[in-house]
Amino acid sequence: VSTGTTPDKQKFDYVQELLNQVTPRMRSVSNYTLIDENGVYNTATYTALKKFKDNFSLSVNDKVGGYGPLG
């Protein structure tokens, strides 16, 4: 169920849902805290994306690190 109020947020809360499902299953990930699936890019989402990228060796796009947490 999407909680986003606009199509943009509805798409992003899907990304948050996937992060919550995939990242904790990786055995090398420690201290992963589930994030709110609300379609908002904030500090918790930034941290989750960073952990995902670091643990899955995804250095193709460093924009997550470049943008930083927004709120």
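(the above was protein one; protein two follows)
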Amino acid sequence: QTADGTFIYDFTCSALTSTTTPHPDEPNHFRLPGTMIGVRNYAFISITGPRDERVCKVTYKDANAKVLLEI
């Protein structure tokens, strides 16, 4: 959260063409527990709702389009 109260969110997904390995013990105090994905993945961002009630959903999928995580 910034000094003026604005929230900033960050998400990361891997490139489908790169290799990846799980590294859940890597220090990262910003990572939400249970959200580490150690396989190739991509993400969709969906923003819905009226102006003052927006909802953001991030869906992570593996290279075969299987849903891995939705937050």
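Reviewer note on protein two: The chain has a mean pLDDT of 86.
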